[in-house]
Each structure stands twice: as C-alpha cells, then as structure tokens.
Design goal:
Layout (H helix, E strand, L loop, with lengths): L6 E4 L5 E2 L15 E4 L3 H6 L10 H6 L15 E2 L4 H6 L4 E2 L3 E6 L5 H11 L5 E5 L4 H11 L6 E5 L3 H11 L3 E5 L16 H18 L2 E7 L18 E6 L6 E9 L7 E7 L2 E4 L3 H6 L9 E8 L2 E13 L7 E4 L3 H15 L6 E7 L11 H13 L7 E3 L2 E2 L5 E2 L4 H10 L4 E5 L13 E5 L2 H8 L1
Parallel strand pairs: 6-10, 6-11, 7-8, 7-9, 9-10, 15-19, 17-18, 19-22, 22-23
Antiparallel strand pairs: 1-2, 1-3, 4-5, 11-12, 12-13, 13-14, 15-16, 16-18, 20-21
Bound molecules: thymidine-5'-diphosphate (TYD) and magnesium ion.
The site of thymidine-5'-diphosphate has 15 residues, from helix 4 and helix 5.
C-alpha cells in the first residue's frame, strides 16, 4: 500500500479495507471500520514478525536443529501457589510465555494481576499501569494485603519506556495493564486502535521472548468499536485467558481459551470479595449450594470444563405466554441450542412449548457450552412444563440429538466421580457410554437411549 494512504481497519477483527464501509467484509460487524494513517518511514520501522530472524544477524543463528538436539534446560514453570491460576496456566506460568488476559471492564483483571504480585515471593514483577496512577495501584495492593518489595510499579504507556524499565528491573514477570493504553510513538494512530494494539503487542512479545521473562497482557473486551478487541491478538500470544462472570454475582471464572503449554478450556473459579479474589477449590459445592429442593424445573448437570468436571444447577421456568411469539430467555446457555431442545421435546416427547414462555438460567453466573448438558436443560424444561419436580438425587449427563436420541459424551468417568463425591445417588448417562465405564464410582448409573424415556423415568 502506498505510504500515508488512509486505510480503514476493523476494530473487531483487524480486517483492512481501502475505503470506508458500514459493514466489515472480514467479520460482518457493523460500524467497526476506523480510518488509520501511517507514514512511509513508520511502516519501515514496524517489526514484521513473519520475516523476523530471516535477515541480518539473526539469520546466522537460525539454523534448523534436530528435535533431539533442541535444548530444554531453563524450561520451567513459575508456580504461583494459587491452584486455580496454576491449573488454568497448565501447571504454572511457563518461563518466557506471553499471555493475554481479557475480560469486561471491572471484572477483576487488575485485581488478579495485583494479587499475583503477592503470590510470587522472591520473583521480581514489573507492573506497568497505563490506566491508573502508582498510588491507585498501591491503594489496591494495600486492600488486597499485597506488600512486596519485589513488586515494581511503572505508570507508563510508551513501549520504548517500558522496554527501558525492563532493562533496569530485569523482571521475572511483566504485567502490562492494559494493552489498549500502550502505544508505540513511531506509529501515528491512536492508542487503542488496531494498529497500535497489534504493533505494541508485537514489540512486547519480542522483548519477552528475547529476555525470557513471562508477560501478562491485560486487554479489555471491545465495547462495540470503541477500542480494539483482544481478538486481533489471539493468534499472536501463547495463552489466552478470559475472565468471565456476571458483575452481579461474586463468582469469576478464569478460562483458558488457548494455551500452547497446556489444555485449553481449563477453568479456575474465584470469588470476588471485599479483600480481593479468593480461589474456590470446590466449585460444584458452591454452584449447588442454593439449589431448590422439591421445586419443579431444577436439574443438575455435570459439565466438563477442560479436564475438570463441574456440577451446576439448571433452572427452568415454563409459563403460558401472553405474547403472540412466545419468549425464550436464557442465561448461561446458548439460545439456539435451547430452541433445538424445545423442538425435540415437542416432536419426540410430545411436550408442546409453542404457547409457553421458557426461561433457562444456569446458576452462579456460569456459562455452559458443552453439549453434555443438553439432557439436563431438556429435563428442567420438561419438569417445569409438567410442574413435577425432577429427582433431586440424579445428575443428568447426555447430548440430545434431533431424533430425540441421547448421544454419547466424552469422558464420562470423571463426571461420575464428581457426582458421587457430591453425594448424588444416581447419574443418567447415554446408553452407549455404559460399556466405557471401567471403575466403580459408588453411584447408580442408568443408561438412556431416548429423551422420552428419561422424561418418563425422572419426572
Ligand atoms: P478491577 O480489577 O479494577 O477490574 P478490571 O481491571 O478488570 O477493569 O476490579 C474492579 C472491581 O472489583 C471493582 O468494581 C471493585 C471490585 N473489587 C472488589 O470487590 N474487591 C477488591 O478487593 C477489589 C480490589 C476490587
Ligand atoms: Mg483494570
């Protein structure tokens, strides 16, 4: 592209266009294209990661190496001592790793990062704050009971200055809070724009890999086109963590959506309290603690989040509608999936929801995406529809197919173990899973083939 020619960059996905358009042709989002200009000499200075190491001095060192000859010494993980965080990171923070922690503003990212300062005694942490003053960070640290002389604060947003501070401090861990405030002075676009976010990240990434410390980059999730979303960074970084949760609930879930050093989709559960985030080592107990007994529309599912089975209550409320189009309202579950399940219940189990509103709520502000929770959602809806409480001692596990069949789920054994641990008497699992269960889990296991069967047995 010719120098200083304007380009229009989608702030959601980073797609570039030559002229402004209302809709991004890359991701289909509306009103996300923003004009960004760069001058010729600036483009030349932008480090291009794709050609990195293929020119100049780096090329000399960059020879192919036999797998067996690759040096592994120095590969170590920093254990934070907080099991919930270590698990999500795949067993600790890998030295030299570059992680992105993303989430809605106010969810607790800065809190978690400040607490990290207290978790790693003897390790130097450089906390770069672009949003708050040092005093504000200190105030928060005091509130959190973090008082470490190995925690260095820097209120700075210029990447070059951050690099200088890294030279001075030589940290084991760098926290950059947040990437939307950090900028490279050689680029003309504003901090928070896609170019700035991407290039600043590229610079910090290079610094991290060269000096072999670890970096946590904090990123706010886009509020419709105002700031560049962390999505444009996901492919660049080693680990992407999402900090999710409902602001109105105390529980926060840290989820690894990508991890080059461990299992993806692993979750850690925290509770936000007055004095900061506390880990929740037994999330199933918490998510079931407010469960209603003897009430229709409540079931318990066992969802596998990463390697960890979690029992969660599903609540359904089905009431006659007063609208021409009945309402479908879901929290913590996909609305489309619910539509499908209701259609299957109608066609295969004879429960017609067409003149009923259906509300589904996953307790504790948890978001469930695994198909194995389908059965629990279906039975909760059926239970409320018939106004008959479902058996409270049963945990429901199974994916619902369009034919009303209960389909096999992955790794049923850890789920059974968790249900037995929490005192459930019975688990309903897909029939086809039965012969894959090797151990004895101190729980009655019932195999199910058809949704109708389960509706008849459990209700
Ligand atoms: P914060 O970490 O600043 O959010 P983020 O960096 O993701 O934008 O957390 C902000 C919220 O957390 C704020 O509403 C206050 C609350 N909070 C607590 O409840 N307890 C605490 O100890 C702290 C430090 C914050
Ligand atoms: Mg913050």
């Amino acid at each position: 592209m010719a120098s200083s020619e304007p380009r229009y960059v989608c702030q959601e996905c980073g797609h570039e266009a030559h002229k402004w358009m209302g809709k991004c042709t890359g991701c289909g989002a509306w009103n996300t294209l923003v004009k960004e200009t760069e001058s010729a000499d600036v483009e030349a200075q932008v480090p291009d990661l794709s050609t990195d190491g293929q020119n100049g001095t780096a090329a000399a060192q960059n020879q192919p190496t036999q797998l067996t000859e690759v040096e592994m010494e120095g590969e170590s993980r920093l254990k934070t001592g907080v099991d919930e965080l270590d698990r999500v990171m795949g067993g600790g923070i890998m030295q030299g790793s570059f992680s992105l922690i993303a989430g809605d503003p106010g969810i607790g990212k800065s809190t978690l990062m400040t607490e990290l300062g207290g978790y790693l005694p003897g390790r130097k942490i450089l906390y770069v704050t672009g949003e708050e003053s040092k005093r504000q960070v200190k105030l928060r640290a005091q509130r959190l009971g973090v008082d470490s002389d190995a925690l260095y604060l820097l209120a700075e947003t210029n990447v070059q200055e951050i690099a200088n501070a890294v030279d001075d401090v030589a940290p084991d861990l760098l926290v950059a809070d947040s990437i939307q405030t950090i900028y490279r002075p050689d680029l003309t676009s504003a901090p928070g724009s896609v170019s700035q976010v991407r290039e600043s990240t590229a610079s910090l990434l290079k610094l991290t890999k060269e000096r072999e410390f670890s970096t946590f980059l904090v990123g706010h999730v886009t509020k419709k086109g105002t700031i560049a979303g962390p999505r444009v960074l996901e492919h660049m970084v080693d680990t992407v963590l999402y900090f999710e949760g409902d602001q109105n609930h105390a529980y926060r879930i840290l989820r690894s959506v990508k991890n080059r050093f461990g299992a993806a989709n692993e979750i850690g559960v925290f509770e936000m309290r007055e004095d900061g985030l506390r880990e929740v080592p037994n999330p199933s107990e918490i998510f079931l603690s407010e469960r209603g007994y003897g009430v229709s529309g409540s079931t318990v599912v066992c969802s596998l989040e990463g390697t960890r089975p979690i029992l969660v209550e599903i609540q359904a409320l089905v009431t006659p509608t007063s609208y021409s189009t009945p309402q479908r309202t879901v929290t913590g579950f996909a609305a489309q999936r619910l539509q499908m399940i209701l259609a299957v219940l109608e066609k295969r189990a004879g429960l017609a929801f067409s003149d009923h509103d259906v509300f589904i709520n996953v307790a504790g502000g948890v978001k469930l995406e695994e198909p194995a929770v389908d059965l629990g959602v279906a039975i909760a809806a059926a239970s409320s529809f018939r106004d008959i409480p479902a058996d409270t001692g049963s945990a429901l596990i199974g994916e619902v197919g369009l034919g009303g069949e209960i389909r096999t789920v992955s790794r049923v054994e850890p789920r059974l173990k968790e249900a037995a641990k929490l005192g459930f008497d019975r688990a309903v699992v897909p029939e086809n899973n039965l012969d894959r269960i090797a151990g004895d889990y101190d729980i009655d296991v019932t195999g199910a083939q058809q949704l109708k069967e389960v509706v008849d047995v459990v209700l």
